[in-house]
């Protein structure tokens, strides 16, 4: 297996209109395993994922995916190359049932067997196939959003706060699935729940006002006394 990263992000800068949010972010993700992105509210975590999927224009810097320059590729080209994205909010069609949400995703990728794979991973969804997605619990909705992103069988999954708004009893269930997924794919995991992030990701980056302030093995980052100042509001 090659040691070459699947994702290489170099000196990435991005702005909303005139307000710059990312200031030279450099990070890599291996073909298997997760890297965590930590940081307080407003640090730029969601903005970073939006630049990686192509929803946000890159000001300068480079995004290299599987050895190919993806910096300016439109979102659907990135998806076809193998990038999946689970946004912090939404990610499902509320008025459609669980089954319809999965069918829409599978018809886009043309891989209907992927639905069975997703349901085997999240059996709870199988019990709710006819239920409108808007009426799912927070945890079930996150599972559906993750499931939808998996339908295109991504090589790299960008996950923005998969446990936000999820009841504590279900968080561990999601964490367990993520620990299984990283055996076969790469994940960039934005997560507020520090212990969960450490249990899924081997490596962590801490963003502070749009810059990587701290990085390293996820356990050493968790135990670093400087972490507190970067996570404090
Ligand atoms: N559409 C937008 N227009 C202008 N500024 C924005 C927009 N979206 C986000 N920002 C600003 O960019 C900065 C980074 O926001 P971002 O959503 O990336 O942070 P985050 O780390 O994901 O925060 P959270 O933990 O709250 O999700 C914030 O100052 C935010 O106010
Ligand atoms: Mg965010």
Task: Explain what you see.
This protein is an alpha/beta fold and 233 residues long. The protein has a domain at 7-92 and 157-231: Rossmann fold, CATH 3.40.50.300. Helix content is 36%, strand content 27%. The strands form two sheets. A six-stranded mixed sheet has the order 6-7-8-3-9-10, sandwiched between helices. Strands 2-1-4-5 form a four-stranded antiparallel sheet, covered by helices on one side. Helix 3 (98-109) runs parallel beside helix 6 (138-150). Bound molecules: adenosine-5'-triphosphate and magnesium ion (MG).
Strands in their spatial order, largest beta sheet: 6-7-8-3-9-10
- Which ligands accompany this protein? adenosine-5'-triphosphate, magnesium ion
Low-confidence stretches: none
Secondary structure tally, helices: 10
The major beta sheet can be summarized as: 6 strands, mixed
CATH architectural designation of the domain at 7-92 and 157-231: 3-Layer(aba) Sandwich
Q: Indicate the CATH class of the domain at 7-92 and 157-231.
A: Alpha Beta
Instruction: Assess the beta-strand content as a share of residues.
Output: 25-35%
Q: How far apart, in Å, are the first and last alpha carbons? A: 41 Å
The CATH homologous superfamily of the domain at 7-92 and 157-231 is termed P-loop containing nucleotide triphosphate hydrolases
């Amino acid at each position: 297996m090659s040691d070459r990263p699947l994702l290489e992000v170099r000196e990435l800068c991005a702005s909303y209109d005139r307000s710059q949010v990312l200031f030279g972010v450099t990070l890599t993700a291996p073909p298997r395993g997760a890297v965590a992105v930590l940081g307080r509210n407003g640090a730029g975590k969601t903005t970073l994922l939006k630049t990686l999927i192509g929803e946000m224009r890159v000001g300068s810097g480079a995004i290299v995916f599987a050895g190919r320059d993806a910096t300016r590729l439109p979102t659907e080209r990135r998806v076809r190359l193998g990038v999946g994205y689970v946004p912090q909010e939404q990610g499902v069609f509320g008025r459609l049932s669980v089954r319809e949400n999965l069918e829409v995703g599978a018809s886009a990728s043309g891989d209907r067997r992927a639905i069975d794979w997703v349901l085997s991973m999240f059996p709870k969804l199988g019990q709710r196939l006819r239920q409108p997605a808007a009426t799912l619990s927070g945890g079930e909705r996150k599972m559906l959003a993750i499931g939808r992103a998996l339908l295109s069988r991504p090589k790299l999954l960008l996950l923005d706060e998969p446990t936000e708004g999820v009841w504590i009893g279900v968080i561990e269930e999601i964490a367990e699935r993520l620990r299984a997924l990283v055996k076969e794919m790469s994940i960039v995991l934005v997560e507020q729940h520090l212990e969960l992030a450490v249990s899924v990701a081997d490596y962590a980056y801490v963003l502070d006002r749009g810059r990587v302030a701290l990085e390293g093995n996820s356990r050493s980052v968790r135990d670093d006394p400087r972490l507190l100042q970067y996570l404090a509001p």
